[in-house]
Amino acid sequence: MSHVATQETHGHPALQHHFENMEQQREAGTLGMWVFLVTEIMFFGGMFLAYTLYRGTYGAAFASASNHLDIKLGALNTGVLILSSFTMAMAVYFTQIGKSRPQIFCLLLTLILGLTFLGVKAVEYKSKYEDSLIPGRLIPNRPFGPEVAHEGDHSEHKLKLLGNATLKQVELFYWIYFAMTGMHALHMIIGAGLLTFLLIFSIKGRYGPEYHSPVEVIGLYWHFVDIVWIFLFPLLYLLGRHFEHM
Amino acid sequence: MSEHIVPVRVYVTIFLVLLVGTVLTVAAAFQDFSFRFGTHEIPFNTIIALTIAVTKATFVVLYFMHVRYSSRLVWVIVTSALFWMAILFALTFADYWTRGWLPVGY
User: Which of B22, B63, B92 sits opposite A82 (nearest CB)?
Assistant: First the structure.
């Protein structure tokens, strides 16, 4: 009896000694990742709470500030991230069925799409910098102070204040915008690092139908980061568009 | 292995649903859906945007993240996240929304 158990325990080189078999190890890993993601949800939840509170208080300012964001780049990034989630899911699929080449290709594609997202984000941040929209005095010699558009002023770089909005309240929106998108971007950078790690080991042929926990678990993380953006995009970019002609 | 392998057509369907959701949410944002209900201004645009976002997120969680095919334990963990989020929002707003209900010095 014990002989059989010993054989099973040493069935796969990746099996850790404290697990009975690969199946148990995989389930424990998935569960652990989900527990971590719950803490991540609470972490982002705090920022979503701050957003909700201040948007409820300074609605007009939030709409004015949001309308200044680039909706085309925001929508493009949403598409890029959804596509990257799809390629990540496909990478897990190809690992499960043991197709090595498509697996590597999908991981590479996911990594490239993640980096594309970060590139577009950098372009957006740069234009906010040029319009002096970085809140507070984070940037030397460029404190928060966008030019405000007046009647009949159609310059794209000038901020149109709606209703009773003040610049101070608009600045609050940008604090929240940079905190949330910045934290999201940091998660993307970490995700890109993890994907690079996966890519190296998948090229070495480490993952297959028997052992694919790392691909699956990092996939979970990647999808989570996608979900955060699914909420950030409408809440930050689209909230005041229907006031455009006010 | 008891593990479920999700077929490719499911992944493709979810991907298309997510794309359609993104197009819908952008299109809906430019229409004014807000209306008055009694003395209240109902921000229906936000309700539409959040409904689409929650739907998209649910599809990602159930299919891309395999929760639909996962053990009960994973379901409990995922639900607990929503539960704690609900507490975070409910208790905070129980404070903010009720400020000023009682006169100062009461």
Answer: B22
